[in-house]
Design goal:
Number of helices: 12
Structural class: alpha/beta
Mean pLDDT: 95
Helix content: 25-40%
Distance between the termini: 57 Å
Low-confidence stretches: 276-280
Oligomer: single chain
Number of strands: 10
Strand content: 15-25%
Largest sheet: 7 strands, mixed
Amino acid sequence: MCEPDALSRVLSQLSVPHNRIVYFHSSMDWLGRAGIGVGEALNVLVDWVDAEGGTLVFPAFPFRGSHEAYLKGEPTFDVRRTPARVGLLNEILRRRHGTKRSLDPDLSVIALGPQAEAIIGARPTGADPTGADSPFQRLLDLGAVLVGLGVSTNYLNVIHVLDSRYRRRYPCEIYSDSVYPAHTIGPDGQLWHVVKEAMLNELQVHIKPSRIIETLQPDHDVFRRVNIGETSFFLWDLLPWERLCVAHIEQALDAGSVPCWLLDVEKHVSRRRPDGPGAD
């Protein structure tokens, strides 16, 4: 078993800021292996970020697995009641008093803190779930850091913001050709009808954001990692991370290739048709 302050020590070693937006990916299975319980984890994280006016953010997706398969069911998402199905810690925070949730029927996020409403927005994201009006783009715009708690460095869903931004210049398709209707019930009972584009399942399965570390070798100001036994913890500072990744994307496209994290994806998806959607 770990000491009661084990998670606080990890956050200190990673230099997780107290006064910024912190976006967490977590696995309670792996935190449990490090001797960290769900109650302890939530209390430590809330106290850490709340100490100097920071904001806590978690994904709160209402599904696991294939984005497109979920959207094919024409889901109705109730922002007040639909569970977050991407982790126990996420669902417990969703139920906490004061937590805000975005109106997105697919890639919803939750936030607690003074910048919560700035992150979640006032309406559902447009058709592109990680586009310019998404909570994920706002995380970048507002200078967030991303912290992984017991998850692989392949857990980095903000990478889809960059792929969304450049997708029409990529030589391969990463989104479905189809759009799908979905519905959101807001906190006041208002019903929103939206259409959503879907990330291809091949993208979800084969994307490898961990290759950013291997290929681009970010310095300590951009990326940090510590371990408790076999449980990994890491931090990405998203502003310099974005600059690093965008420069890499431009270099890859100039060379007629794709960024390193999409190399395996490219093998499993269609090449872009010259006269197809998004063609120049």
